[in-house]
């Protein structure tokens, strides 16, 4: 942070900046992404800010749009945000949810017809997440009902009753599938840290509107999955890929997921009011945060990944990793009171403003490569590029700064 400036003033400046950026992010999506012909939002906008005609529409994209506009409305009460949340909700109900077999399609075509019909647990949990936040915004009982139905389906079809945890993916009718991967870069394994982290996030938000003992137990079990399996007790990095019996299948380190997990695990323990788990999580959060510091560049950006087996550091700086760094390091400052973490937050925010915000077209760039150049041929909006990590970072820190 700026030397000799009182922390209260520093936080006020940060909060104002994030308030402005939240407006900028959502204004970009309002201006550029509604599909005026086929409904919902366009499936893809390329790096040149051009809409890709007839691009598929991802369920994760739509669920994250629903969450972002709902959460922004819950924070600001801006009626425009509610309008777009309602539009997204109806699109998901009408096109994304599989009326025959339950769950959500991975994608639909530009007209809203089923395209990739596999049932990826990751997409289903984000839909629970978005529907739950939308219920908080509107009190729409049908949205709550749909979220609960998706939860029950995941527990029935995906939860491993023998070993705990969630299996990664299924066919449209919830049968085993050979290709379990979320994307081409992922290992083809039955249990992944990424999916479990966002199942936990979805269930945490669902618990805000539906407090049952069963759901509480599921949240506790997921937290223990992290404590027992995903968090490496030697390095305090997160292990990413496992087989069905919890045998580790990868040594890859994802700095963004490391720092993201810290505050999401803590949020889950807080929402179920489990003090014992909360104290464990707070203590281990500090260790995970310290491990993640190894991924920080001198300019304040957080690198993407590191492969210890090859001693290979991927020095890309993706937009979502920077967003998670803001919240994770801020959260660790709140736990410890150690201003070094707040300094990291400020330096990271300065990096985001200088290198990640798209000054020309709006929103955030996909990222910077190892030479500091803008990464080419990457989406501005698409299956993975959504108004979620960045709007969530703004919302989360705005809520945490009480001045």
Q: Which segments are poorly predicted (pLDDT under 50) over 5 or more consecutive residues?
A: none
Q: Give me the CATH architecture, please.
A: Alpha/alpha barrel
* Rg result: 20 Å
Give the domain tally.
1
Query: Residue-averaged pLDDT, rounded?
Result: 97
Question: What is the N-to-C order of secondary-structure elements (H for helix, E for strand)?
Answer: HEHHEEEHHEEHHEEHHEEEHHEH
Assign an overall shape: globular
Describe this structure in words.
This protein is mainly α. The protein is 53% helix and 7% strand. The strands form five sheets. The protein has a three-stranded antiparallel beta sheet with strand order 1-2-3. Strands 8-9-10 form a three-stranded antiparallel beta sheet. The longest helix is centred in the first third of the chain and has 26 residues, at 7-32.
């Amino acid at each position: 942070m700026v030397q000799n400036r009182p922390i209260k003033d520093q936080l006020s400046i940060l909060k104002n900046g994030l308030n402005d950026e939240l407006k900028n992010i959502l204004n970009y999506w309002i201006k550029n992404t509604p599909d005026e012909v086929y409904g919902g939002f366009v499936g893809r906008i390329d790096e040149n800010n051009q809409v890709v005609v007839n691009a598929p529409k991802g369920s994760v994209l739509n669920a994250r749009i629903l969450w972002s506009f709902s959460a922004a409305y819950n924070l600001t009460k801006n009626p425009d945000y509610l309008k777009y949340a309602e539009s997204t909700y109806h699109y998901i109900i009408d096109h994304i949810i599989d009326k025959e077999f339950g769950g959500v399609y991975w994608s639909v075509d530009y007209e809203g017809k089923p395209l990739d019909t596999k049932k990826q647990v990751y997409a289903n949990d984000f839909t629970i997440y978005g529907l739950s936040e939308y219920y908080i915004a509107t009190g729409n009982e049908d949205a709550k009902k749909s979220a609960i139905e998706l939860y029950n389906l995941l527990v029935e079809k995906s939860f491993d009753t023998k070993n705990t945890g969630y299996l990664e993916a299924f066919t449209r009718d919830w049968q085993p599938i050979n290709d379990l991967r979320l994307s081409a870069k992922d290992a083809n394994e039955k249990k992944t840290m990424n999916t479990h982290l966002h199942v936990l996030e979805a269930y945490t938000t669902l618990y805000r509107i539906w407090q049952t003992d069963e759901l509480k137990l599921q949240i506790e079990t997921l937290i223990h999955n992290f404590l027992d399996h995903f968090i490496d007790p030697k390095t305090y990095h997160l292990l990413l890929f496992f087989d069905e019996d919890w045998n580790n299948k990868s040594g890859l380190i994802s700095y963004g997921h490391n720092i993201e997990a810290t505050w999401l695990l803590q949020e889950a323990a807080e929402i179920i009011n489990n003090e014992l788990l909360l104290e464990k999580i707070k203590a281990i959060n500090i260790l995970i945060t310290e491990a993640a510091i190894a991924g920080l560049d001198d300019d304040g950006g957080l690198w993407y990944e590191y492969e210890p087996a090859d001693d290979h550091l991927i020095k890309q700086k993706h937009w979502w990793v920077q967003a998670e760094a803001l919240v994770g390091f801020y959260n660790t400052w709140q736990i410890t009171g150690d201003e070094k973490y707040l300094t990291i937050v400020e330096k990271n925010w300065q990096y985001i403003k200088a290198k990640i915000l798209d000054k020309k077209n709006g929103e955030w760039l996909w990222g910077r490569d190892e030479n500091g150049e803008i990464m080419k041929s990457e989406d501005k909006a698409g299956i993975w590029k959504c108004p979620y990590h960045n709007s969530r970072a703004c919302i989360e820190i705005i809520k945490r700064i009480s001045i």
